[in-house]
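Interim report, section 4.2 (structural modelling).
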Amino acid sequence: MHRSRVYALLIDTPGPEAAAAASFWAAALGASAVPVPAEEQFTSLHGAIPGLVTAVQSIDDPNPRFHIDIETDDVEAETARLLALGATQVSRWLECRVLRAPGGHLLCVLPVHSTPAVFNAGARTWS
Amino acid sequence: MHRSRVYALLIDTPGPEAAAAASFWAAALGASAVPVPAEEQFTSLHGAIPGLVTAVQSIDDPNPRFHIDIETDDVEAETARLLALGATQVSRWLECRVLRAPGGHLLCVLPVHSTPAVFNAGARTWS
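Predicted structure of the assembly:
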């Protein structure tokens, strides 16, 4: 038995346009754009969407995309669950697994990043 | 003075894969997949992300993407605000304006779809 919840929405943006995208989305959504220390590809958009971490990620790809991060207390079990539902594994990145959903969208499975209170309040339990 | 808030996250999926994508995302996020009456390109994912309407949209495009819907009490003013921030207008669809953000992502501006209570609680005011 393990748990997971949707943690974040990442606005993946081609590198040369990432700064402009971060400025736009911050202003558009009334958020503050805050660089993430030691992870310079990310600019967090604090307060953009209630309950959902939102950030612009600079990517080495000419095609803009979004992806969803799912946080879990068991990365192995959550990845296995999503693979059984039809996702395919694309890569690993640090402790994260990058998967592609049926239909072609990317999602990442990562260890719990929220506070215990936030995770416990929103997580679903899978058996 | 007008108001807006992020209303929805749309998982835009190439038509032939849209049904499989809706099934996957519903199971992955613990949501129920519900076809939207009279708008058969949409399958709503009830309960997928708290506070954010989530749906799969079948699209006539081979490239999967996401887009964000912003609801507002003044579509003209909100569109003008986002254009001034650097977005470009792509098209109109019914009462909605489809814009492209700096960085290449799509967003739609549409009239308020939430209940007054939800809109009033979450909307930001722009002057």
